[in-house]
Amino acid sequence: MPILSGYHFGKGRAFGAFTASLGLGALLGFAGAAAVSAEPATADGARKLTEVFQAYVGIEPFAKGFLAIAPHGESYDLAISFDSGKLDMPEAEGITRLQRYVVHLTPKPDGTWAVNTDPGPIAISWTGADPDQNQKFDLKFADCASKGVFDPKLMAFPTFSSKCASAALTVRAPDGDLDLTSGELSSQGTAKAGATGGVDLTSDLRLAIMNGKFVDKKSPGEPLPITFRFGGMHQAIAATGVRTIAVADLITFVRDNAARNRFDLPQDELKAKLRTALPLWEDLASNAGLDDGVVELPTGAVRIAHFEEKQALTGVVNDARYADALSYSGLEIPPAVVPEWARALVPTQASYDTKLSFSGLDGMADALIRGLDLTKDPPLSKMAGVALLTRFFSGQPRYDLSLNATAQAYTVKGQGQASINPEPQAHIAVSATGFDAVVDALKKSGDPDMQNGLMGLAFIKGLAKTGPDGQMIWNVSYDMVTNKVWVNDQGFALPEPQ
Question: Which of 212, 252, 303, 432 could form a disulfide with 180 if both were Cys (CB 3.0 to 4.6 A apart)?
């Protein structure tokens, strides 16, 4: 987004790398802190825990004061902050800061760790180096608290919850200004041993009410303000069979060797750890949505009652697949944006589902690992590449889609698939109602250039078959052998490829 040109994660890469390594180091640090967990909170225990964290995130975050661990009652306080001004970075990067906050780590007799934070603010900011550009990014969470239990045996949180009373985001950039405020933010998470190995994880994130305003400074004339609000947002994630222990072991192995500048890792040991980490996870599913969205334009309000996206992705398994489904309902567009003749053509609800499936992904991964040799350049031989390509084409890759759209004047439904074995082919079946109403609406546009479009629609109508319920049907397919597209019973030759 242009509005974020003043603060993007490329410029904030030092902070991004720091927070990523911190999160990973926290998980691995807990797993490696068994010796600490058996003791009460003492200065010696804090020193040992510090050493464990330093093994994963390095010494510099502690030396710069970004991280600090100290005993506090029965717990160890992990103080976290960040200031890129303390790092050796070019001035053009600007300054990124994370306000100090404290996480309480309490060792429990069963080897797990209680992890919690007291209610308080969390603030992240970035200020551009050029004062004339007035580039700023401020993200603040109010009254945030969290609690959970981390289990080193799972390398995950069996229980975790967090809540912030509100949030506010302010962005100032040469091309525009953005202001966002939200109501309560909350998250819940669980983890348990998977039935077939690994760990089963769940996460539920919710955001209550968001209000925002964007001012476009790039538009000619006066800056145009656009305000928007959403009644709520949510995302639910579930993953089964996540190989948390094996992945952590692999990361530790790479870290230990990289620390010695041994990027030519012991190949047999690396391959063994890669195989143990597979399939990474078994199934991963996400469901995200928003409700009651309103965007206030100078010409009126655009409304959407509900928007949802569902995604599913398998790990490196034999029957691999990726699915993505988008849908919305209750779309309203102001009359000033859509002329009267076209209002009946705007789809008030629609959905679009896609799925990519592949057989033998685990076999491809095995071939990749067998052929991998990081001591060579390139790490894969040409013959290994040929073997991978052969496995790909023998894996029956297939793409499926379905779509639906409903407007006042018409409905459209489509379902199709494409594959490359035994030869590239594709097919889609489309059905529609209200075709004549669409044509009548376009005739009312008064646009002389619409004539060509009307002629095209007449041609498409002539290709259709009539279904038992009166709907129009088009069965469209591609035949690679004849290089023709077929619509119902009529074939159309395509130009020969050059």
Answer: 212
